[in-house]
Amino acid sequence: MLMAWSIMEVIARNWAMVAIISTIVILVVIPILVLLKYVRISLNIMRTTKPPLARGPLDFERMLGEPVTFPALDGLPLSGMLLRARGAARKGLIVFAHEFCSDMYSCARYCRPLVERGYDILTFDFRGHGRSDCPPGYVPRQWVTDRELADMRGAVAFAENWLAEQGRAIELGLFGISRGACAAILVAAENRRVAALAVDGAFSTDTTIEYFMRRWAYIFTSMRFAYENYPTVFWRFLRAWMIYFARREFGCRFPSVRKAIARMAPRPMLFIHGEKDSYLPVEQSRKLYVLAGQPKFLWVAPGARHNQAVVLHAERYSDLTVSFFDRYLGSEDRGAPTAARPTSLFARGSTPVTGVPAAASGADAIVAP
């Protein structure tokens, strides 16, 4: 009792100091503790969240090409293969970047029509996948890091050298799926020799992590009223802080695809995303589409889940990707459709649009420039 009275007396004599300390606790310490809690939740998401199964063992028939090896930008040996175009006419070279938990052979799902229409394809295994090495201490995850960027840079450098040895113009296309799409965008932002870029299921790690934080917050915290009313600035600050902690924990950087595409010199881009993608919602591609320069196109595949547009709409997928690269890579005259596809969906003056705005959903239509 005497001790309690002494404490109250001290507080009464130093009420100003107590008020200042209390204010600091309320305004600084408590928010920091809340943020740290969300950081722990977010890091757990980055450690454990895995994409749904993208392909099955009988999902496609493999295509076999010429085995190649080349170093990533950091020197790590990577394995790949070259698929030569069928027929005499060779329109261009496309570097294919597979999705997480896949390998170089998955290109058969996406690129068979391109090979049949005259395109050479360079496909390769990212580190820790297929036949490519993985350095000690690095665990590949579904989030693109500076390591996958080094792999993609190595693949593009190999493709450029190969074109030079063939005496062909050093320009190429990129075709990426999910995490591979992210790596493709990051490389295209720094390399003007990339003439055209098609991406399926693209996303930016920072905005996607924010989406997951909002989506799963109610599972990990009882402060429902609080997290439902946090301002947007809170979530943006949190994602930046979380990326900082992730960089320290995982020992790698997580480059922002969103920032890369915003600073990219205008490049023809085709975005594809499944309407029913419950893992990476279509809004992730829409955000990147808005930031991209012209010409750009967005196809929301009706009913398709993550990386499944090519399965659910095989003919449509083939027509779009072939027409896109015919228009922006395979034609000597970029202002006219190729002879092989005189009715190209992407020929200048054509209108593969039904007037659907970029924000519409569930539409089997192309949003064009």
Label this structure with key terms:
single chain, 369 residues, alpha/beta, Rossmann fold, 2 domains, nine-stranded mixed beta sheet, 12 helices, 44% helix, 14% strand
Q: Give the SSE string.
A: HHEEEHEHEHEHHHHEHEHHE
Terminal Cα separation, in Å?
77 Å
Q: Return residue spans where pLDDT drops below 50 for at least 5 consecutive residues.
A: 335-343, 348-365
Q: Mind telling me the CATH class of the largest domain?
A: Alpha Beta
How can the largest sheet be summarized? 9 strands, mixed
DSSP, total strands: 9
Helix content: 40-55%
Would you write up a description of this structure?
Helix 10 links the parallel strand 7 (269-274) and strand 8. The N and C termini lie far apart (77 Å). The model is unreliable at 335-343 and 348-365 (pLDDT under 50). The chain is globular. It has helices at 2-13, 15-48, 107-116, 146-165, 179-188, 205-220, 224-228, 232-250, 257-263, 283-291, 309-312, 314-328; strands at 66-71, 77-83, 92-97, 119-124, 172-177, 194-200, 269-274, 296-301, 366-367. It is α/β, with parallel strands linked by helices. A nine-stranded mixed beta sheet has the order 1-2-4-3-5-6-7-8-9, with helices on both faces.
Summarize the structure.
It is globular, with a radius of gyration of 25 Å. By secondary structure, the protein is α/β, with parallel strands linked by helices.
Topology:
Layout: H1 2-13, H2 15-48, E1 66-71, E2 77-83, E3 92-97, H3 107-116, E4 119-124, H4 146-165, E5 172-177, H5 179-188, E6 194-200, H6 205-220, H7 224-228, H8 232-250, H9 257-263, E7 269-274, H10 283-291, E8 296-301, H11 309-312, H12 314-328, E9 366-367
Parallel strand pairs: 3-4, 3-5, 5-6, 6-7, 7-8
Antiparallel strand pairs: 1-2, 2-4, 8-9
